[in-house]
Amino acid sequence: LTAFLIVHSPAILCRKIPIHYGRYLCKFKLCGTNYPLSIAFIVVNEFCERFSYYGMRAVLTLYFVNYLHWDRDLSTAIYHAFTSLCYFTPVLGALIADSWLGKFKTIIYLSIVYVIGHVVKSVGAIPTVGDTSMHIALSMVGLILIAFGTGGIKPCVAAFGGDQFEPEQVVETRKFFSIFYMAINAGSVLSMIVTPILRGDVKCFGDDCYALAFGVPAVLMVAALVVFISGSGMYKKVPPEGNILMDVCKCIGFAIKNRFRSSKHDVKRKHWLDWAEEKYSKRLIQEIKMVLRVLTLYLPLPMFWALFDQQGSRWTLQATRMNMAMVRVYLSAIRVSIVYGLLETMIMTITLWRVILIEIDIWPLRKMACGMIFAAIAFGLAAFVEINVVVRIQSWTFLEGENIVAARFEDVMANNVNIAWQIPQYVLITVGEVMFSVTGLEFSYSQAPANMKSVLQAGWLLTVAFGNVIVLIVAEGGGLEQWAEFVLFACLLVAVCIIFSIMAYFYTYVDPSQLDKLYQQDAAKGESEDELKMTEKMTKL
Hints:
Elements: H1 2-8, H2 10-13, E1 14-20, E2 24-30, H3 38-58, H4 60-67, H5 72-101, H6 103-124, H7 132-163, H8 170-201, E3 203-204, E4 207-208, H9 210-230, H10 244-261, H11 282-298, H12 302-308, H13 314-319, H14 333-359, H15 364-389, E5 391-398, E6 406-413, H16 423-446, H17 453-477, H18 482-505, H19 512-540
Antiparallel strand pairs: 1-2, 3-4, 5-6
């Protein structure tokens, strides 16, 4: 409805303000506000895109197990390989947007790739299209295209929304990002309600309708693309100005190259990055030093994401083997994640945000360490539940006809562990995410200059990618029973938390604004010296 009103009734939603530059342009504003109308298109686009992504991912693990008939380990590995690729590709999207096409064209082109991926994935879920090999091939091609699409536009959409505001609209920009992330949560939660219902309650081709469950997200992605293009005439399009990430990489590379080329007779440098002073400004080098201090703290962080992202794989598969008798209306195992998704959103937005992030006055790095501990405890509970889910008994039998031989075997009994036992682990990992993720991003942005935020964003997303790689390796190469694997992840995260706490203890908090003041004073001093020299020359003349 919002998209329809935006596209078809601009006169209702906006007022026109003429801008005179020798021609008549119109700057659209949302009625009664100081917000540009263009952000409405961006927010609706983000809602539809997140619905598309999370809706598809909500049924992905069960699609692998039930439709492609893969085992649990392979299904988990492919699920996390896909998630990992989704968080590696944002770096590529940022480079394309900042160095070549600009944010607007990058979003358009990669959204088309995104749509094609969804269509291919949906076709691969139609039983009458080819054999199993064809289904697997189409599914893998579709997932790769989706990963490049969603990852490529991830760093562009939010930044493009921020570009719509003037520099002095600080309050409006902050409120926009609150609305933007609300749209992300709304799209993800609604998709986790709709797509499992389409998969389980609607029957097609005599079985669960995965084609429809994947097809609806494809339609939503088409809608996202159409809505975004519809607002093209209202957008403020900032041309590509070069990527700061490339500048950082070039500066680091130049410093390393100079360092190894140096001889014993060269002047000693206090820091290895100082070897780049021959080509790059001192300010840029100092900013990179600040960023590297933060990125060093990122090194232990992938382990947290290795645990957190298993909600969509291992924990979902655990739910399929639990008793749902307490639930009055029959729910499929995947639909239980809806309840947890709603619970997570409610906790994050209403209670935990204020209590954890505002009222608890402790250093940000300590909050992140506490978040790791909560996640580790959650996996300890998951291991406890898993031990009780798989109930094994020992039996004896007689074999080999006349020869009586005692032989032991294990039989898996139908479990009666209620699915409600999963609730505590979801609550704990949600608390952990709030303390870890939100605090981590806030800390990162507070410890680096404003022009380096894109570098930190890329680094943060890469920690998520590498976290999923860890799960992939353990799932394929571990060979452990599920409860033992949960215990292993919990212990690894505790060990990483100890390492991170030691690193945090020796970290010194900085104020990036002091860097601006320092270089402004140096620039003013340099201008004063230049003026003094010019005055002396004029006096001599």
